[in-house]
Design goal:
Blueprint (H helix, E strand, L loop, with lengths): L1 H21 L5 H19 L12 H26 L1
Helix pairs in contact: 1-3, 2-3
Length: 85
């Protein structure tokens, strides 16, 4: 019973935020893109390079990753639920 509860909680904890990013709710994927771009720019400025930062990941990539993590979390939650029942 303990592993089933653990899988259920782990699945829900990973599926809910990942689904939020996958569906781009309230612009979360674009906010992640801007955050990553700002961090890359700050990192380059700290190294002394004053040029523009290169773009590493777009909002579409974050949405695809969110979809994959959300589906994996759903599978874990369903597995935990199956063990509990």
């Amino acid at each position: 019973m303990d592993i089933g509860l653990f899988l259920l909680v782990l699945g829900l904890v990973s599926a809910i935020p990942a689904g939020w990013v996958a569906l781009n709710a309230r612009g979360s994927a674009t906010a992640l893109e801007r955050w990553a771009e700002t961090n890359a720019e700050l990192h380059r400025h700290a190294q002394g390079d004053l040029g523009p930062a290169t773009r590493s990941m777009s909002a579409g990539v974050y949405r695809c990753l969110g979809t994959a993590v959300g589906l994996s979390g759903t599978v874990l939650a369903l597995a935990g639920l199956a063990i509990l029942l």
